[in-house]
Amino acid sequence: MVQPLPEAYRLDPADPRSPTEAQWAAMSPEERARVVAMLPSEGPLELEPPPEGDPHRIAKTRTADTLDAFFRRIGRKIYISSELGVFYPGEPRFSPDVLAVLDVELRERDRWVVVDEGKGLDLVIEVHYGGDEDKDYKTNVERYANLGIQEYFIFNRARLNLRGYRLPPAEQGRSKRTRAYRPIVPQAGRYTSGVLGLDLFVEGNKLRFLLGMAPVPEAEELIGKLETALRDVLLHKQEAEEVAAAEAARAKAEEARAEVEAARAIAEAKRAQAEAKRAEAEAARSRALEQELAEARAEIERLKRGL
């Protein structure tokens, strides 16, 4: 039986959606590139919630930055982004607070188009503060499960609690709209993420991460450690420079003392040489006087004998 051709793709600016898999398969590489470029990376949609203020912004930014910096430091290939427009085939666009995708190219993106990337999201973290609870706790739980997103966490910044969901292995291969999450049961307040390989927990008003028993440092903590290390390096450098300067000064003083001693020794040698010359001259004069005296005495004796 001949398969019917897919309906031609058209972008609806009021409800921008990615092409279906069948439409994507029927496109040439040039057509695909044009479609991806047409999909809006941002812009108001009726389904998007209103802004929730600084607590919401700071929490999601801190979470995304902490995860991105951590995985880059350890060299693990996990793409992390925040508020990125995500397009599943034929589905309305959505923009998670934080998203993670395993084993994809780490580069800057304006949007995530599943048919173009060849992969959907592996994890979503939503920060709830003052928006629609039904969206985060009901709509997204059903929607993200149907899309096959392996894990979904909700950090309630207002109530300072956390909730997590995971697709069981048997659910991950099932068809769309038949999948369902199971709640992640916390252990001592820690929710384990198989996608990240980390535990999530709430500390004060922050969402934090643990690798084993070691907290994953946040950007401010890393900056503080780097500043402390830099201060230590500068202090050690200053101390080393001061020690080197003192050693150089001591060496120069020793050299000056040696030069003075050498000059003194030369002066002493010259004085000794002069004394020797004076002594030799005195001895010569003494010999000359004795000779003259002897000659005078002899002349006196001779004159006496002539009288």
Describe the structure.
This protein has 307 residues and is of the alpha+beta class. It has 2 domains: 21-216, tt1808, chain A (Alpha-Beta Complex); 218-307. Helices cover 48% and strands 17% of the residues. The protein contains 7 helices and 12 strands. It has helices at residues 21-25, 29-38, 54-74, 114-117, 133-146, 169-172, 219-306, and strands at residues 78-81, 85-87, 98-102, 111-113, 123-128, 151-156, 161-166, 182-183, 191-193, 198-203, 206-211, 214-215. It has a 6-stranded mixed sheet, sandwiched between helices. A 4-stranded antiparallel sheet has the order 9-10-11-12, with no helix packed on it. Strand 10 (198-203) and strand 11 (206-211) form a beta hairpin. The protein is rod-shaped, with a radius of gyration of 46 Å. The mean pLDDT is 87.
CATH hierarchy: architecture of the largest domain = Alpha-Beta Complex
Overall shape: rod-shaped
Strand order, largest beta sheet: 1-3-5-6-7-8
Number of helices: 7
The termini sit apart by 178 Å
Return the domain count: 2
Structure class? alpha+beta
Mean pLDDT: 87
- Series of H and E elements: HHHEEEEHEHEEHEEEEEH
Q: Give the biggest beta sheet.
A: 6 strands, mixed
Beta-strand residue percentage: 15-25%
Helix residue percentage: 40-55%
